[in-house]
Design brief:
By secondary structure, the protein is mostly helical. The chain has one domain. It is 70% helix and 0% strand. The chain is built from 10 helices and no strands. Helix 3 runs parallel beside helix 9. The termini are far apart.
């Protein structure tokens, strides 16, 4: 009608674009690339449960990938003690020779051996246990091995490692008094106490209880793996140290530096390997029992720094 405004148009439905512009089967994206070395923490193998042979092989690979840092940590602690021990006991000769020293020299050598043995048990062994276990865990998780950082960490854990060792020995001693077999079982169940302390930060009885639960059901695997690793380490140590002992015997007391070098090299090469085995067994059991991944373990290790 003339003079009246036009009526409003009814609302029109909103036109939505079609689900796809090109009919046909949906396009599939290519699978993601496999994890690179950086994504895996720069480790030479995947994080998964391993058999005995795989653990030994992994220990060798990890050792080769970080051998400088691992050997440096052991060398700084071991070499001074071995040279001091060889010097103070030079009068009694090598293990393959008959002592020709006087009674006073023999008494002095015995006293020196006892004193150095006490220092080794109370200070050096707990320190090396903490330091090498920490370095081994860093290697497994793909972290760099920093000698200074590892040393500071180990110094702060000497008393805790020593306390765990004392508790383990007391518990195992009680088991040996009752029956021989329970003593061995206790030793194996508490085998991961130091590693639990280093990685998870648990101390004393809490670390031993954690180790007991992890080792449960895997007695023979732990024994077999560590026994094979110990035999391998003993063979290498013998090959390196025996020639030094024979040279010491041939030269006489003046040849003590040769013997000290041989003992030091043997310890430097074998100590990281056996500790790596213990750390690998620990991580293997955590993967089997708890399905923990690399990120969670790395966070735990970082929290204990």
């Amino acid at each position: 009608m003339d003079g009246q405004p036009p009526l409003p148009l009814p609302p029109q439905p909103v036109q939505r674009p079609p689900a796809t512009l090109f009919p046909g089967p949906a396009l599939s994206l290519p699978p993601p690339p496999p994890p690179t070395a950086r994504m895996r923490g720069d480790r030479p193998f995947a994080m998964q449960p391993m058999g005995v042979g795989e653990i030994l092989d992994a220990a060798i690979k990890l050792y080769r990938s970080r051998w400088r840092g691992l050997m440096a940590i052991v060398a700084i602690a071991i070499v001074p003690l071995e040279f001091l021990r060889a010097f103070l006991t030079r009068s009694i000769g090598s293990p393959f020779s008959q002592p020709v020293a006087t009674q006073g020299e023999l008494d002095g050598a015995v006293i020196a051996t006892l004193v150095l043995g006490g220092i080794e048990v109370l200070v050096l062994t707990p320190f090396l246990t903490a330091a090498v276990a920490r370095a081994s865990a860093d290697v497994y998780l793909g972290h760099p091995v920093l000698v200074g950082t590892t040393f500071r960490f180990a110094v702060s854990r000497i008393h805790s490692i020593l306390w765990i060792s004392i508790l383990s020995i007391l518990a195992a001693g009680l088991g040996f008094l009752l029956l021989i077999i329970p003593g061995f079982i206790v030793l194996i169940r508490f085998f991961f106490g130091p590693t639990v302390l280093v990685v998870e930060g648990k101390k004393g009885s809490a670390a031993l209880g954690r180790s007991w639960r992890l080792a449960k059901g895997h007695f023979w695997k732990i024994v077999g793996t560590y026994l094979l690793a110990s035999i391998m380490a003993a063979v290498v140590a013998g090959v390196l140290s025996v020639p030094g002992a024979f040279a010491f015997e041939a030269i006489g007391p003046a040849g003590w530096p040769v013997y000290a070098v041989a003992l030091s090299v043997a310890s430097i090469l074998t100590t990281p390997f056996t500790t790596l085995i213990a750390v690998l067994l620990y991580f293997d059991l955590r993967i089997r029992k708890e399905a923990f991944d690399l990120e969670v373990m790395a966070q735990e290790l970082s929290a204990t720094r």
